[in-house]
Amino acid sequence: MTTACPPAPDRWAARIAAGLDRPETRWRAAAIAAALLVVAAAKHGYSHASAGQLALFLSPTAHLVSLVSGADFVAEAGAGWVSRELGFIIAPGCAGVNFALAAFLALTLGWLGAMRTGRDVAARLAAAAALAYAATLVVNTARIAIAIALHRGAVDLGGLTPGDVHRIEGVVVYLGGLCALYRLAGASGPRSGREERERDDRSERNDRHARAA
Q: What is the mean pLDDT of the chain?
């Protein structure tokens, strides 16, 4: 007695093999590889970067923080952007590059289902880079503005040291920003995911009919 459908392990193995043979799977693998190379290269460059070299992040962040907090920040060579009034420095470590790279990866993964061709990959990676940069400026501005409020004593620390609160605040703000970006990426490409699942189901049904015949 024969069956029309292969055992579940064989069916899944066939489905995986069919998926690996698809051009879109190779393009998605290429997108992940490209994103990881960008992150690795940026991490290496960032580890040796000065305040001047990070001006792309620090300068607009300092201007946004000035608008939000009302404090004046002035660029000082080798230090970063300084507010003498507050005794506060937006230093290279405050650039938010690590968040930008994590955001870039989160967006890349969130949009992976929509990357089916080389053009899709290039467009989505470029959009991920641009959105990650913009999000970094917004999230980093919020983080530093909160840090300034803590520095001014406008927020009750509840017995914690300023350093502890600053670290906790940074984790909460950055993690919230990453979660929001990933949700945004998923919400902006649901149709591609549904189409992919429907295509997989049709392919599996066709394979079953072919074996049954």
A: 79
